Predict the structure of DNA-binding protein SMUBP-2.
Amino acid sequence: MGYYKFPLVVHWTIGCLFHPVLISILQIKNKKTQDKGERSHFRNEIKALRKELKEREETAVTEILTRANVVLATNTGASSDGPLKLLPENHFDLVVIDECAQALEASCWIPLLKARKCILAGDHKQLPPTIISDKAAAKGLSLTLMERLIQKYGERIVKMLTVQYRMHQAIMQWASTEMYCGRLSAHPSVAHHLLKDLPGVASTDETRIPLLLIDTAGCGLFELEVEDEQSKGNQGEVRLVGLHVLALVKAGVKARDIAVIAPYNLQVDMLREHLCHRYPELEIKSVDGFQGREKEAVVLSFVRSNRKGEVGFLAEDRRINVAVTRARRHVAVICDSRTVSSQAFLKRLVDYLSEHGEVRTAFEYLDDIVPENYSPQNSQGHSEQGAGPKTSTTSAPKPPPEGRKSKPNSTKPSTRKPAAGPLQSVNEARVERPEMNDNSGKFRAMMVEFLESSEMQLDFPSSLNSHDRMLVHQMAEEYGLQHVSTGEGRERYISISKRTTTVSSSPVNTGGSEQIPPAESQSPAKEALAPVKKGGSSMSSGKVDLKTLHLERMQREKAKQEERVRKNQELSINLQEIAGKKHKNEAKGKTMVKTGADSQAEEDIDALISAAVQADNICGFPRCKASVTTLGQLCLHCKKRYCLSHHIPEIHGCGEKAKVQARQRISREGILYAGSGSKDKSLDPAKRAHLQRRLDKKLNELTSQRKSKKKDKEK
């Protein structure tokens, strides 16, 4: 049942009926009473009027409820303690309980006792009622009346509404197959509608597709691990949600038509902090907050990303069903396919999105992320796999040439079947994609040519995408080159440069000692080129045997280190012999040198101290020479003393720091104080007087105790 509701006419009618009675009561109270007898008479009259008021109210409510064909009430509002107690027991013919799947069975029995027939309306495949006690849920409280009746009587008592008027056919088909035995169908008016069909929305890559999967597997965007915190968050997915919402808004989709849904409250708070100030009309809620709602576009953040494959209550099928089916034209799911695929239901969702929608990786959105567990050894291992025989890649079907997989919504079988396990990580996909191998070969050839040349810096064009920039960073790390990304947006590019090498020399240069020749310390450029020159075919194809290169480099470093240790031992032996011969002469000279050095150091320290004291006594403002010895103020931001003319932070250059501190204090305390912005910490006069009285009382007690002790001693 809905909610209890009186029309406005009912309240107006009751007011007209009780108006004379209320006027009489007010007149009686306003009369001046003279004696006890008159006051007692008025009290009795007030009691009688109140009783009459109650009777008239019940009569009016009974008359209104009797004439009404439909009465709306909540489950608890339909109890015998409410207004319905004024009606006879068999007054209602039918009880309809809406959203019955979200109500406890015990609460449903309250209105069911009012009629002989009932209709239970709801979807038991969506969110169940909230049960706080796990013990009560385990003993059957979580089972709703609707579920129990369907389990007992089956399809005989069920009438299913099979035509839906909300979702695009591609969005609906997954829910229909997984939850409703494939019985749902989309009305022709909504079967193929997309975001680009909305007025004022441009046709872009985001507005032309109903399903989008942004996969963070292998990108290192793990969930936050907060101690003593049951809720979860994922900062990387927050950034991805912000970028996708930005793309939709730029295409013309209004922020009020977009919903961002996350299963965890911590993630909801992080998303609101990141997006609400830019898009005030954007709704960001948990799954429970969107039950029964709908939006043109829905962005889902699944949050969970860990090495153990834990998904928490994402394993609740009905919760995911509600989240996905809130969308009308577009659903974007941001998740770690490797983590969520550990649960069968979520794995089928990921497979469906990869087969019928478009799949993108987080590398296409974020430039500053590094592949999970990346190290030069790992990248070498992947390069070896790419350079080896292509038995696995030839059998696999070829993905689209642009690195994104977009499939039209048709009944044709997909050319690429969903993988049995989770989606492949970015590092594995890099081996399978021929166009990425071509790019890596081109970049490697450019670096080899740069290493052979005399140039110290090489700038790559800004037309590289985020994945190409990642490849350049990895290759620069392998060759021992310095690499940095500069610029923002489309102007972002990578610069690589050669490292400057220093020749290691012996600690003491003596006539008989041997120095390490400079030819032994080769530059990283020559080291990197050594294995490449051996095989012309590998250099022409832009591929290098990275394992051999790494082993040779390690052998050279080990040989150098052993040579240095041996020569240092020889030098230490020679130095000990020389030190034994010249010990006496050095002892004489040390006393003279030490006295001169100590005196010079003491003079330097005294001058430094005097300069610091003098600087501390003068205003810290550059062009001010006022003395602050007697009167000055210390700045809390730069820790310098200023005169009263320059002590304000905005004057001497600490304005930004003061502004940041003020904002932090306001956000922390939640109160904006007038004047200087600080709270008036002076005591309230009343509180001060109270504390003074307590102090005087305490002093008097202590004084009396001392007097009593003196008297006892005299006795």
About this structure: Confidence is low (pLDDT under 50) at residues 1-12, 374-437, 501-544.
